[in-house]
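To fix ideas, we reproduce below one chain and its tokenised fold.
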Amino acid sequence: MNHRAITQAFFDPGTWTVTYLVWDPATLRAAVIDPVLDYDFKSGHTASASSDKVIACVERHALQVDWILETHAHADHLSGARYLQERLGGKIAIGENIRVVQATFKKLYNLERSFLPDGSQFDHLFKDGETFMIGSIEARALLVPGHTPADMAYLIEDAVFVGDTLFMPDVGSARADFPGGDAHQLYGSMRRLLALPPETRMYVCHDYPPASRAAHWESTVAEQRAHNVHAHDGIGEDEFVAMRQARDATLDVPTLILPSIQVNVRAGHLPPTDENGVSYLRIPLNALPVHGAVPAPTRTPQ
């Protein structure tokens, strides 16, 4: 191979999300993975600062974006896919099991009748093992369910972009308690990724670092197999599932899960506007399962 894909990471400290821009230096064709649309929970305003950094990099290197890739319908940030597509072009793509996620959350949100859980909001739905091109570089979509039914990883040369399936070795693995999540499936997905060649670079979608280090998002399969606190070699499926289920039972509901998923199942489109020209998010009350008691409201400083 005469060239190697170039990867640029963009870390969003507001949601701990890492967006990736990957391009072929021979053809200057590119893909964006897991873009962020900024959202202020208190005011209900969206903003584009995170995605604008990606756009600036695309323009600086004179790239042509062919793909905007989602690893799954995220519960911790709104997708910037539609915003980027309007400015850069490219096909918005996700795994074909997004239909399952759409059907689940259409019921939870009681979405409008015109919203069809058929994946048509996306330009392309990947099947497991499907290959696609970024310029002259072949990439492969890998189904890695467990966190959600629709999670995909993207293998691009000697790098794999794993979404939320695995985190940095000292953080571990994704939760599996969202609707449609399954800790047994998650274990199998992790082992599939960890069966890649040891030198494969592994890029995670989030980092939640301990106080002892700064945010980081790149490791290798070998490092994960040796040191991942939840999934290192020697941890069996039953042990992992017991740990994951016990841990998930203690976790808070993500702050942006209700705003984000209803946008993300639409490929980053905001909900249709009402007669007044304003788009509204739907917040189902007392419908999403919570762990433990509902916390008491805290006073907002004036």
User: Anything to note?
Assistant: The CA atoms of residues 106 and 212 lie 41 Å apart. The first helix runs from residue 49 to 60. The mean pLDDT is 94.
